[in-house]
Amino acid sequence: MNQALERLARDIDLTHPDNERLRLEFGHACVSRVKHLLEEHEVERCLQGLGAYLDGTIDRRSLDTLAAESARLANHHQGSKSIDGCGHAAVSATYAVANALQGKALEAASYAAYALVYAQGGSAAVADRESFEAEFKWQVQALDELARVRSRCAG
Fold it and tell me: What is the pTM of this model?
């Protein structure tokens, strides 16, 4: 959906196995922007686990366990319990977390963007491509900056 992000991801070879940490960092950055939309404490705990992994305070096995748990939670999400009709935002934010924990950065970004736009303007906003522009721009800038930092650290 975010063509500029997809181009950047190709340019930096985001899917390369050596870029797993970059995928996790970018997914975490995107999901952090929608954590206020999460409605289940267990999903928040999974997101916190991703941050802990990136900080080096939990191991890979723990991350893998959290990734499996977040996928289970996303696939069984019952929709929003709130009366404001933003169920799609909560579900999308949950899927964003699950994808981020699995290292599926572009999918996490897409779900996060959808969650933000839906939460701000409902189904009418989601149908309007312009509603996504600010978030899409942020995502490109965030991935570009993370990639540049990684490149400087590696070089």
Answer: 0.90
